[in-house]
Automatic annotation (TrEMBL):
Keyword Lyase carried by entry: no
3-hydroxyisobutyrate dehydrogenase-like NAD-binding domain sequence ranges: 168-288
Keywords recorded for this protein, A-Z: NAD, Oxidoreductase
Superkingdom of the source species: Bacteria
Protein name (database record): NAD(P)-dependent oxidoreductase
Pfam families given in the database record: NAD_binding_11 (PF14833), NAD_binding_2 (PF03446)
Annotated ranges, domain 6-phosphogluconate dehydrogenase NADP-binding: 6-165
Segment forming the signal sequence: none
This protein's record includes keyword NAD: yes
Length: 307
């Protein structure tokens, strides 16, 4: 594989470990950009270079990866005044690893085509630990030719890479995955609290449910690892991010003429959780809203466990 210059914008919870794995893979020089200097410094220690500006990164790089909080940030970085497309060159590739609205993804693709730039949506699934381990699942929307070209780079970050179809289909898959996951976690929260008040321990409920038709990834991971111990770290998929994703999913459902009341209910549960102070915590913290546990009581529980 010929050496190329890569760019990576957004070194947050998922972006930093993804960038680290791509940098260590040695495809070619890696330029990085983030508002926070600390992850930039860590990438420099791995051999990356800090881009002086967005314009410099756009000018220098052949393939640019984005890992940003959501649609507004991606729109600004790519389409905004002085954004990537303003300084792009024909033959360049932009890959969006963020979770964004499907309509925005297709709008960016159209604008990129007009500049001779290729664009793919490639949102990621699974946890930060999976990002660190390079075992993410990545869902790609784009042409078969571009997918084949990108696959070696994505292999550095993921163990499962799926070509979902044309532009925007990666986002469709990610949004539907998260819509189902979030609804599952809300359902588990209600089941856990109900069973607990009826005299059944949370861990016992997980053990029994996992043997039957209620078994799921959400039960074995979000349920067992977070909801049973009632520990929801802040450096994970936060409640406010989950609200963003299910909002995008509901927007897509509405655009497709689908009424989705169960997803609407799950969104309202998350919004209650955020209003109760759990906006930055791992989103299964919604169980505390179902149980009526306040943020103050939750913090006191953490202090006792850390003593």
């Amino acid at each position: 594989m010929a050496k190329i210059t890569m760019g990576f914008i957004g070194l947050g919870v998922m972006g930093e470990p993804i960038c680290a794995n791509m940098t260590k893979a040695g495809f070619g020089p890696m330029q990085v950009l983030d508002l926070n200097p600390e992850p930039v410094a860590r990438m420099i220690a791995l051999g990356a270079h800090a881009a002086r500006s967005l314009a410099d990164l756009a000018k220098a790089c052949d393939i640019i990866f984005l890992s940003l909080p959501g649609g507004p940030e991606v729109e600004k970085i790519v389409l905004g005044e002085g954004g990537l497309l303003a300084g792009s060159h024909a033959g360049q590739v932009i890959v969006d690893l963020s979770t964004c609205p499907v309509t925005l993804t297709r709008e960016i693709h159209k604008a990129a085509q007009e500049k001779g730039v290729e664009f793919a949506d490639a949102p990621v699934a699974r946890t930060r630990q999976a990002a660190i381990d390079g075992t993410l699942s990545i869902m790609v929307g784009g042409t078969p030719q571009l997918f084949k070209r990108l696959q070696p780079y994505l292999d550095a970050a993921a163990e499962e890479i799926t070509h979902c179809g044309g532009i925007g289909t990666g986002q469709v898959m990610k949004l539907m995955n998260n819509m189902v996951l979030i609804q599952s976690v809300v359902a588990l929260s209600e089941a856990f609290v109900t069973a607990e008040r009826a005299g059944v321990d949370r861990s016992a409920l997980v053990d029994v449910l996992s043997l039957g038709s209620a078994d799921s990834f959400a039960l074995r991971n979000h349920g067992k690892k977070a909801m049973v111990p009632n520990i929801f770290p802040v450096n994970a998929f936060a409640t406010d991010y989950a609200i963003k994703d299910i909002s995008y999913a509901l927007e897509l459902a509405a655009d497709m003429g689908v009424d989705a009341p169960s997803a609407t209910l799950a969104k309202s549960r998350l919004e209650q959780s955020s209003q109760n102070g759990f906006g930055q915590e791992y989103f299964p913290a919604v169980i505390n809203t179902v149980s009526g546990t306040s943020k103050q009581d939750y913090d006191q529980q953490l202090e006792k466990e850390n003593d």
